[in-house]
Amino acid sequence: MARRLFRNDRPTITFTKDFRQLVHGNLEPGKPAMIVYDAERLPNERSTDGGQKAWAIQAFYKFTEQGEVHTTDLWSETGEILTKVSDEPGEGTMMLCSIDLPVDADHLTLWFLNIGKSGAQFWDSNFGRNYIFRFVANDFHITSVRVDRDTLKSISWFELQIVAQQEIYDLTAAYRITNDSAQANTEQHLALTPSSSLNSEGLRPWSGRAPVPENAVVQFTITYNAYGNTHRDTNSGKGYLTWPGAVRNVEAAVL
User: Fold this and answer.
1) CA distance 34 to 14
2) Angle at 69 between CA 67 and CA 73, to 5 degrees
3) Which residues in 108-182 belong to E strands, given as ranges?
4) Model's pTM, two decimal places?
5) How many other CB atoms sit within 10 Å of the CB of residue 3?
6) I need a surface site. Which of 76, 142, 143, 238 has the fewest CB within 10 A?
7) φ, ψ of residue 107 in degrees (nearest 5)
8) Can you give the pLDDT at residue 253?
9) Domains of the chain
């Protein structure tokens, strides 16, 4: 269904060894977020002093573009660094920290530094752009999604309607037809068209539709831009689903 999953779980951002950033749960202002960081993203500084660990990985973060920069050390539940044999999150050493998001936060920006006794500095900062996480549950709401059969042709239509904050642009649905073996692994894109006017709540409606096979089961995610940065809502990695006969007005389910 086109519902946000795990919305009551503590929001967690996992930074994997293969440089993916996976968001679980809803990042929201006023709530704490757990950062789970694979130590092998920054493996170069591993100094020791008298046989003891003499290095650290630090998280830097801020909540507005020009806001104050905060820092905290990441810590490991395993103590010593454990060797990874795969890129799977949670295998090997994952380092942690918790960040309290203030109620007036606009977004969460993160970057990381590996330092130690050697004096060298190694950064993980998305090549200087940093990692920016919007509060996607507040940025837009899916108001209607459906798969409807065309009465004149042997096709159906995947139709999507969204309302979004005014600073959002380039809203696109990336979708797959999960019950068609020929298309299940092919990602297609539906660019949504914005309305020229805002609704009564000051949000901009967006809409679009694309032809799909009859009785298609459609899995989709949402990509959009804000202030020059691209963001993707994967619904905690599960995507959203719709099919013929599924609930059409999902505003109550999503909000």
Assistant:
1) 8
2) 150
3) 108-116, 122-124, 131-133, 140-149, 156-164, 168-177
4) 0.83
5) 14
6) 238
7) -170, 180
8) 36
9) 12-133 (2.60.40), 136-254 (2.60.40.2440)
> Can you give the pLDDT at residue 252?
33
Q: What is the pLDDT of residue 174?
A: 98
- In a 13 Å sphere around the CA of 144, the CA atoms on its Cβ side amount to 12
Tokens of 241: 């689903």
Write down the pLDDT at residue 184.
86
* Tokens read off for 159: 């139709």
| Listed residue (59, 57, 82) closest to 69, CA to CA | 59
For residue 41, the SS3 value is: helix
In single-letter form, the type of residue at position 44 comes to N
User: How is residue 22 written in tokens?
Assistant: 């996976």
* Nearest in space to 43 (alpha carbons), one of 90, 92, 88: 92
* 111, 124 Cβ separation under 8 angstroms: yes
* Type of residue numbered 198: L
